[in-house]
């Protein structure tokens, strides 16, 4: 059994780094759209189980509406604790492979998720870096409790170090869709430069046409993946 877990904190706390350019209501809209895009990609990847770890009733409703199973946290203890909860549950249920991806990667594709799931083997975890190279945007472990995971930059280097200290041989996958997490204003612009089909891109494009949205620069000026990853 292959299990994928998406940790989601309270929507009211979502995307604080975008507070200078988006209102609270817009950040809420953005978080919901990104989660739906991620869950649709996971569903299309045809994994065995899709879990959303949360304590937010609105997130539970979104998850159930898209065929995912909510794993309810007693309290919001952060990304790392939410993933650890899902790892423990996956191990308890006898999962063969455990995946985790964040809920703010709207460009992720089903093919990327299948590649991530297929890259992990016993003694060989798989990791996908964020485009900055600092964060970890995707993990696949076989078995689910192969190693502890700790998120927050520079988590990518930390995960590789932890894996190697445990005698594991990590695989690194560069996946451009999964690598783009939406945290800062420039990420919104990059999203529009590369995507016009996701629910999130369509939402952000409506904001781009509004007066005063100077943070969304013309698409022709945006750097590609290679430039941003340097």
Structure description:
By secondary structure, the chain is an alpha/beta fold. It is built from nine helices and seven strands, in the order E-H-E-H-E-H-E-H-E-E-H-E-H-H-H-H. The protein has helices spanning 24-44, 57-65, 79-92, 110-119, 155-165, 176-179, 185-194, 199-208, 225-228, and strands at 2-7, 49-54, 69-72, 97-100, 126-129, 136-141, 171-172. A seven-stranded mixed beta sheet has the order 3-2-1-4-6-5-7, sandwiched between helices. Strand 2 (49-54), helix 2 and strand 3 (69-72) form a beta-alpha-beta unit. Helix 1 packs antiparallel against helix 8 (199-208).
Helix content: 40-55%
Question: What share of the residues does DSSP label as strand, in percent?
Answer: 5-15%
Number of beta strands: 7
Q: Mean of the pLDDT scores?
A: 89
Q: Write down the domain tally.
A: 2
CATH topology of the largest domain: Spore Coat Polysaccharide Biosynthesis Protein SpsA, Chain A
- At CATH level 2, the architecture of the largest domain is Alpha-Beta Complex
**Looking across the biggest beta sheet, what order are the strands in?**
3-2-1-4-6-5-7
H and E string? EHEHEHEHEEHEHHHH
Distance between the termini: 36 Å
Name the CATH class of the largest domain: Alpha Beta
Number of helices: 9
Structural class: alpha/beta
Major beta sheet summary: 7 strands, mixed
**Apparent shape:** globular
Descriptive tags:
single chain; 230 residues; alpha/beta; Spore Coat Polysaccharide Biosynthesis Protein SpsA, Chain A; 2 domains; seven-stranded mixed beta sheet; 9 helices; globular; disordered C terminus
């Amino acid at each position: 059994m292959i299990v994928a877990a998406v940790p989601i904190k309270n929507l009211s706390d979502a995307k604080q780094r975008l507070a200078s350019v988006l209102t609270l209501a817009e950040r809420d809209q953005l978080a919901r759209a990104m989660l739906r895009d991620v869950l649709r990609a996971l569903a299309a990847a045809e994994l065995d189980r899709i879990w959303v770890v949360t304590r937010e009733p609105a997130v539970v409703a979104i998850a159930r509406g898209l065929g995912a199973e909510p794993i309810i946290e007693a309290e919001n203890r952060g990304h790392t604790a939410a993933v650890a909860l899902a790892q423990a549950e996956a191990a308890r249920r006898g999962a063969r492979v455990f995946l985790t991806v964040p809920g703010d990667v709207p460009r992720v594709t089903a093919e990327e998720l299948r590649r991530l799931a297929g890259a992990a083997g016993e003694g060989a975890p798989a990791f996908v870096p964020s485009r900055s190279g600092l964060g970890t945007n995707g993990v696949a472990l076989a078995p689910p409790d192969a190693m502890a995971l700790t998120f927050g930059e520079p988590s990518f280097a930390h995960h590789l170090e932890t894996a190697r200290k445990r005698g594991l041989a990590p695989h690194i996958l560069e996946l451009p869709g999964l690598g783009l997490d939406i945290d800062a204003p420039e990420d919104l612009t990059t999203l529009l430069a590369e995507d016009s089909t996701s629910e999130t891109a369509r939402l952000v494009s409506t904001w781009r046409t509004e007066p005063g949205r100077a943070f969304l620069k013309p698409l022709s000026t945006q750097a590609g993946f290679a430039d941003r990853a340097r």
